[in-house]
Structures are given as C-alpha cells and as structure tokens.
Amino acid sequence: MHAAATPYRERSHFDGQDVLESGLPKPGVADTGWLNRALAALEPGDRVDPHGRQAFAVGPITPLVARGPAPVLAWAPPRLPPVSDDTTMRLLDLYRHTDPTFARVLEERVGLAAIAKAGGMSSGPDEARPTVQGGGIAQVRAYFADAAGAAAKFLVEPEGPRVGALAFDGWDTHVDEGAVKGRLANLLGALDGALAAIETNMGEAWRQTVVVLVTEFGRTARLNGTDGTDHGTATVALLAGGALKGGRVIADWPGVKEAELYEQRDLKPTTDLRAVLKGLLADHLGADAQRLEAAVFPDSASAKPLKGLLA
After folding, report:
1. Which residues contact 93 (CB under 8 A, 6 or more apart)?
2. What is the Rg, in whole angstroms, of the alpha carbon atoms belonging to the chain?
3. Which domains are seen in the chain, by residue range?
4. 108-144 pLDDT, tens per residue?
5. Are 297 and 303 in contact (CB under 8 A)?
6. Which pLDDT tens digit goes with each residue over 233-242?
7. Cβ-defined contacts of 221-226 (< 8 Å, 24+)
8. CB-CB contact of 242 with 211 (8 Å)
9. Whole-angstrom Cα distance, residue 131 to residue 134?
10. Taking the CB of residue 42, how many other CB atoms lie within 10 A of it?
C-alpha cells in the first residue's frame, strides 16, 4: 500500500508513534490502542479467540497498540533462571487464597511458559541473546527472526492467542542510510528474515494469516545533506500472509515531482492508513463497522474501510 499515512502531519517520533498505535487523530489523548479496542469490541466467543485469550505482545513492554480492556498476554525472554514446577504451584495456591487477581495473571504466565516449552523456546536466561542496539547486522537479523519466529509459535498453538503485536526499533536512520548496501538495507534484510520466520513457524495456519507492517513516518523524496531521508510523511504499508489477495501493489500514486510533494519534500499521503486497517479488521476478524467507527478509530468517517484485500 503506497502513499499511506496516519492523520499525523508533524515530525515528532513520539507523537507520530502515539497516533499510529492509538488509532486516534491526535497524540496524547488515549492510553489504549486500536488493536486492543478492536478485540474488545468483538462478540464473546468469536472465532478469533475461542479460549478468551485475545491479544499477545512480544517484548518487555506491551506496545500501546495492544493495550486496553481486552486481555493481553506478554512474553519476553526471562532474565532470571526459572523456578521449579513445585514452587510455581505453591505460589499459585498461596495467591489463590490471598490475591485471586494476581493468581489469574500468574496462571496466564504459566500457560505461556508451557506453550513456549512445547514450541522449543528457551525459558532460561541467554547471555548471548542478540540485541538491536549496538549490535552488528548478524545480531540484528537474528533478533528480528527470533522474536518474530517466537511470536508465530505462540500464535499457531491450539491453546494460544490468535492476534499479536511485535515492535522492531532501529529505523530512525538520519544519516548514511545505504539503501542498497548499508544500515537501511541491512534492516530491510532483517525484516525479510522476520517475515520468513513467521511463515515457516505458522505452518498450515499461514493460509489463514495476515501480517501488517506499519510505521509512523515515511522517507523524504530526496536525500538530506548527510545522506539520510528521515521524518517523511507518506510511506508504504506492507501486507503479507496466505489470507490475502496478494501479489499486488495498491496505490493512488501522487507523483514525486517538485509540485507534487507534500511541503516540497515528502511523498504526499493519498491513502489513510486507518482505511486499510478498518478493511482488514472487518473482513479478517469480523469487526462490526459501526464499532470500528465509534470505538476503534474515532473521528475517522472520511477513512472508509478498504475492501478486497482478502482472498
């Protein structure tokens, strides 16, 4: 999906990310995300998650897009050695009598640990685990693939969640990007590996899967003085998965001549990202159109759900 953007038109990463994940037209006005609100609006017992565990997030902090009234399970590689099963059961028994709410949360975590173990994911600390910040390209590629592959393993489990969110950082490349050979090229290669890991680990479920890759900013239409293209406006939204009617490029292309650029520097936005997300939520998850308008993406009447994305 080319020339897509949120309603945000300033150049703050924090505010742009807030609008992208909250689904609201302005930053700083919500502490819930559009994905969570969409799940909360589904009818009880919906086919998306018959077990009641609706949302799933990978990482030490649940991203805003997945926060809200719907139940959320979060998973990150543990930093401490795991306790024994006997200790876990003793703690559960203790908290069932003293703090039932915490006991329910602990039970959910135990369930996630069981899924992780069944999927071959390590439950112990790993000093060699790759990180994005300060890591070489091999570490970045491994981190992206490991995180995305782990998410897929959780989602494919019969007792696991059905909708997940995963954030990759490191894209704020202001200088010396290297679109062919360089930092940006390496990041795109790592992202390609992450998608491959999801497809591989989803197995047969890939045919029923939609992966949406979105970002708060695009790239400028020309290089800056230090060979960067930071803080642009319109960008590309990538859609992948066996449930899609894929193999297409969809765009209302605005052009990149000087007179066609937004503020004489950026690709002009012609597709509202909320229209893309509305179409997918309605057709793939069965979200109600009125609830999408009222609760999930308020003040988005002009962004009509984009149809025909699914096979």
Report:
1. none
2. 20
3. 4-77+148-296 (3.40.720), 78-128 (no CATH)
4. 777 666 666 665 555 444 444 444 444 577 888 888 8
5. yes
6. 999 999 999 9
7. 221/256, 221/261, 221/265, 221/266, 221/267, 222/265, 224/174, 226/174, 226/175, 226/176
8. no
9. 7
10. 20
